[in-house]
Amino acid sequence: MNRENLNENINIQAVPSFCLKDIQLAVLRLDALHPIVSGNKWFKLKYYLQQAQEENADTIASFGGPYSNHLVALAFAAKKYNLQSVGYVRSNEDEPITPTLQEAKQYGMHLKFLGRNNFQFLKTELLENNVTSNTYFVDEGGYGTLGAKGAATILSNEKTNSYSYIICAVGTGTMMAGLINAAKPHQHVIGIPVLKNEATIRNEITQIIPNKETPFTLLHHFHLGGYAKTNQAQFDFMNLLWATEKIPTDIVYTSKLFMAVKSLLANDYFSPTAKILMIHSGGLQGNRSLPAGTLLF
Predict the structure, then answer these.
(1) What is the DSSP letter of 295?
(2) What is the pTM of this model?
(3) What is the per-residue pLDDT for 268?
(4) 3 state DSSP class of 12
(5) Which domain holds residue 118?
(6) CA distance 37 to 77
(7) Left (φ > 0), alpha (ψ -120 to 50) or beta: where does 167 sit?
(8) 86: left (phi over 0), alpha (psi -120 to 50) or beta
(9) Does residue 89 lie in a domain region?
(10) Are 29 and 63 members of one domain?
(11) Is residue 130 domain-shared with residue 202, that is, in the same domain?
């Protein structure tokens, strides 16, 4: 993994099977930048890693679930930065270890299991009461102003300037906050939340953008029942997208994004001459929870 700006290598891929009328639609293939620190992960992590080094930390720690793209990416990046890594996991120590967590361990991450019921409480305790001077903590999913600052550089490639809509999946909201910060005046950012968190996510995004008045849109009816909820129609959609466009998606984030955009196009949500850029945020770890053969890729 090179530490230099990766934006020059980002591919913008047209999606012909989605195109209707004069609408132009393309996807920013962040997923193709790196096989492990996939998609938006490097952008969200880079300033945390830099600050950890500046503060002379020898360990970087963060939080995630048993199929966390974030923890795997952090484990790999920490190793490259000569930092130890600790992952606090939303599961129990007596549960079978997932392939995702096994991969994080292979990159040197030490795993600590916080359980499921008290995870948020214990996470808050660790973040607010960290007195270990040599450990640098990063919130779940890279949430925070430094994560948003890094995510803003996703749009630093001039090829993204011509689009009128930037649309992305939303988990913690960190990437969307960065996109809002970086969007040009003629660009409107739309988020597709993958959790049933209508009551909190707008505020969580607003907290980490400098201009609190910047308009953005959240469309809450495409989460398929909530975080990591799946169904056969979703699997069929993912397989068809792979067959027609050779774009891999995951069950948690990007498939819901693509399904949402397909629905919005069919229902004339966008103007007939819109130019839409979808952000493929990468990370396929969630797919490892599926039975073998469910997906074609």
Answers:
(1) S
(2) 0.94
(3) 93
(4) strand
(5) 41-142
(6) 7
(7) beta
(8) beta
(9) yes
(10) no
(11) no
